[in-house]
Amino acid sequence: MYQIKNFDVDVFLSEYWQKKPLLIKQGFSHFQDPLDEHELAGLALEENIDSRVISLKSKKWQVAHGPFEDINQHCKGAWSLLVQAVDQHVPEADELMRAFSFIPHWRMTDLMVSFSNESAGVGPHIDQYDVFIVQGKGTRRWQIGLPGDYSNKVPHPELKQITEFEPIIDEALQPGDIIYIPPHHPHNGVALEYCMNYSVGFRAPSAQELLSSFSDFSLENNLFTQRYLDQKITPRKHPSSIKLQEIAQFKQMLHQAIDSPNCSQWLAEYLSTNNRANKDEEDPSEAYSMEEISELLADGQTFVREPGIKPIFIESQEAENSDFIFYIEGQAFHCPANTAEFVQNFLNSAVFNAENGLPQEICLFFRQTLTTLVNSGYWFPE
């Protein structure tokens, strides 16, 4: 179990989150890498895993994308292997990411893991999202500056770098050290020896992305089909003109869509989608019946949440007799209102065991829900 030390969550959220960078020395004492470079390279061979090698040799940058048949042919000069969403494939990596759950799950994207040789990096650059970087084996020098007007350079079509910047943090990280970098802060990391790094990234959807997704949702569900009405239209001097009250009426139509319960449902579905790899294609298996799940529960079987699963729910669901609803990968699960507290505790636990039995009033419901979650690939009997 990973637990951050030398760290005050309240102080961090009020003084540092999205404001300024922070170095946490020995945030993880006696840090153990959740995987090694050989396991990481093995992931880069997989078809459904996003991986790439970024290298610099003879002042020339190269980017190669997996899956790799022979990864060594790309590891020339100063190189880094980067693999996305490792938390979805390695339970220990998922545990590492859970150490940052003081930020809500819907804000998290994935855990990117890199392995680099000496002098490797991706060049000075700026990201548009927050990131915590954990130092694994080896050491890496990190320089972080303040937001500013920097000139861009593109040494490769897939690499966007910036010119030099004045660092306010310049530190060689040791295993267990953590560095937090807010959006828009220039940074540059250079390996001082063979090293592993773990980047906990956070999503920050743009208004454009939100509007696009909401539009798709409304079309898929045939929502907001009412048309514009203007029963009080009046003559105008110029037929080419649009009156301000007409613009206001169009805006009101959009506001009504955004203020509707359908919008809340869409947003929860959207934020719960984490672009997980389709594991059903890798390991198809027969579905469990509720009777089989019930027998496993009765026998004290442990159920484990799949790596990378991040359930979310809307905080205020207080209407009397209304269902409690949670979301996983865009799928909504409805539960009786009186089960909300039990279900929330279940969702927050990576491992579940009903060794003390289930409350009688939720026993049938929970067995049904757990059966659905297992057959959806979100939990599995250990």
Q: N-to-C SSE series? A: HEHEEEHEEEEEEEEEHHHHEEEEHEHE
What value does the Rg take, in angstroms?
Answer: 25 Å
Cα separation of the termini: 18 Å
SSE-based structural type? alpha+beta
Task: Please name the fourth-level CATH homologous superfamily of the largest domain.
Answer: Cupin
Q: Please report the number of helical segments.
A: 9
Q: What portion of the residues fall into strands of 2 or more residues?
A: 25-35%
Low-confidence stretches: none
CATH fold node name of the largest domain: Jelly Rolls
Q: Tell me, rounded to a whole number, the average pLDDT.
A: 92
Helix content: 10-25%
- Outline type: globular
Question: What is the name of the CATH class of the largest domain?
Answer: Mainly Beta
Total beta strands: 19
Structure description:
- 24% of the residues lie in helices and 25% in strands.
- The chain has 382 residues and is an alpha+beta fold.
- A hairpin with a 2-residue loop joins strand 2 and strand 3.
- The radius of gyration is 25 Å and the shape is globular.
- The model has no long low-confidence stretch (mean pLDDT 92).
Helices, strands, pairings?
Layout: H1 9-15, E1 22-24, H2 37-43, E2 51-57, E3 60-65, E4 78-83, H3 91-98, E5 108-116, E6 131-135, E7 140-145, E8 152-156, E9 159-162, E10 167-173, E11 178-181, E12 187-191, E13 195-202, H4 207-220, H5 244-258, H6 261-272, H7 290-298, E14 302-305, E15 312-313, E16 324-328, E17 331-335, H8 340-347, E18 351-353, H9 363-375, E19 379-381
Antiparallel strand pairs: 1-11, 2-3, 2-4, 4-5, 5-13, 6-11, 6-13, 7-10, 7-12, 8-9, 14-18, 14-19, 15-16, 16-17
